[in-house]
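Lecture notes, part 5. Sequence design as translation. It can be helpful to think of inverse folding as translation between two languages: the language of shapes and the language of residues. The source text, in structure tokens, appears below.
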């Protein structure tokens, strides 16, 4: 089986034909990834190549999302720059779709609501990003805004930019959120300093800082839950 090409398989076992006949739910992760990469390499079908890629990431799609183009193309024969970028683009579309599905109906009632809003955007990134939510008086999301992007260990956020975005949205409240790729959820001194400055500045403008979340792979730290706001 390992040396079979997709065209050697029964038509019902070919990923594209299977998708047409049975829908996306009938396909495994490897079969979906095979459709994305399009072709395999000498001795391996696209499906088998996809299985090897997924095995490398412990069959975890989030771990796959952490790999950059250089890592993908250097780790797997048959995955060049174009295929690597295609995989990255497909995963990013999935992440954005998940976030788009959540946002329009979201009302922030707890730290978990915030986590659900940002999990698909931030939990598997290999670098830090800093985001904010502007909220109405009833805590409905007005807008989600990316404030900054950094490296593996830190990112910077401009307090003036945060407050400007909240003022432009006529927000009554705001939420801060960023990720720690290391999965260490303990706030840094910079995190503490920024949180307190935004809280104090928001009070002067009658804009409440409701929470600041630090997101890891599948968990989070909440300043509000820890009684630090």
């Amino acid at each position: 089986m390992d040396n079979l090409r997709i065209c050697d398989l029964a038509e019902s076992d070919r990923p594209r034909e299977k998708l047409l006949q049975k829908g996306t739910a009938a396909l495994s992760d490897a079969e979906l990834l095979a459709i994305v990469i399009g072709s395999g390499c000498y001795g391996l079908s696209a499906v088998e190549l996809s299985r090897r890629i997924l095995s490398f990431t412990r069959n975890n799609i989030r771990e796959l999302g952490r790999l950059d183009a250089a890592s993908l193309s250097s780790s797997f024969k048959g995955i060049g720059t174009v295929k690597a970028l295609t995989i990255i683009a497909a995963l990013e579309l999935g992440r954005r779709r998940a976030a788009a599905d959540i946002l329009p109906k979201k009302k922030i009632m707890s730290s978990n609501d915030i986590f659900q809003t940002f999990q698909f955007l931030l939990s598997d990134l290999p670098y830090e990003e800093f985001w904010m939510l502007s909220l109405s008086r009833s805590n409905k999301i007005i807008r989600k805004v990316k404030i900054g992007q950094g490296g593996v260990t830190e990112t910077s956020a401009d307090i003036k930019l945060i407050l400007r975005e909240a003022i432009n949205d006529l927000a009554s409240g705001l939420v801060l959120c960023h990720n720690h790729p290391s999965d260490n959820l303990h706030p840094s001194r910079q995190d503490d300093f920024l949180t307190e400055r935004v809280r104090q500045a928001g009070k002067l403008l009658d804009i409440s800082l409701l929470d600041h979340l630090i997101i890891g792979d599948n968990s989070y730290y909440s300043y509000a839950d820890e009684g630090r706001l």
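The translated text above is only one of many valid answers, since several sequences can fold into similar shapes. The mean pLDDT is 87.
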